Amino acid sequence: MKYVVIAEELRGRITRGELPPGARVPSTRRLAADHGVAMATAAKALTLLSQEGLVRAEPRSGTVVASRERRGGRRGLTRDRIVRTAIGIADAEGLAALSMRGVAARLGVAAMAPYKYVSGRDELVLLMADAAYGERGYPAELPPDWRDQLLLVGRTLWSLFRRHPWLAQLTPITRPLPLRNLAAHGERALSALAQLDVDAATLCDLHVVFFSHLQGLASHLEREQSALASSGLSEDDWMDRQGPALAAMTSGFPTFAGMLRELGETGYDLVLDTIAESGLRALLDGLALRYGR
């Protein structure tokens, strides 16, 4: 079986010292791309090594080689440890790779052990999201101007989406999550928008527009990771392969053709950080003009 072969290769690298304790192990995405297998197959290889106590999940670092003194056991198992381990898996491998059994395996505990602290995957994802949104807060004294306040909230949310790409994938804006730490960001944004002196319905609409700009862009962060894992092609590689097809499409679309021609001459990198910032500023400019502020 392919996952056994992958696990054997990694086991050998660990045994030979090529991957010493604490060293980061290739992620599920990278293993899938390198070995030409599905992500589920690569995940099974890491799960097998975790069950053997050779690797463990490290929050915000992914899967690392375990040291002997840190292997095994249910000792010290807490809800927070489960949540942080799950966040580490989602950060490194995507939310689709997350399962209760996988979390237990990464922790080196029995498959049912996490259920003592978390009822199931759905509750775990909510706890993960609440913890992630709570990683960044705000100073006691905010800037006096509503624009500066909203810009601060926008940059804070974007930094969290950047840190945890899966966070923007959870639910559509029409189904808000009942998370206290997310509400804390919402309160800051609403208090800034309220200075525009609008009614409650308009206030809600403006907040949806503001949040959707950030969430919509951030949703592409994990999609790009998935595309890289499934295709093995970087953004540049993919664009190079699409060149002939894009060139063929320019016939009859002069503006599109002109844009591509100029970008080919000047060079261009699509940077989501830049678009998030410029989009926020454009939104603020529009609100200031619309509401005379």
Automatic annotation (TrEMBL):
Residues 76-136 form the HTH tetR-type domain. Residues 99-118 bind DNA. It holds the Pfam family TetR_C_1. GO terms for biological process: negative regulation of DNA-templated transcription. Keywords: DNA-binding, Transcription, Transcription regulation. GO terms for molecular function: DNA binding; DNA-binding transcription factor activity. Residues 1-68 form the HTH gntR-type domain. SMART domains: HTH_GNTR. This is GntR family transcriptional regulator. It comes from Amycolatopsis iheyensis.
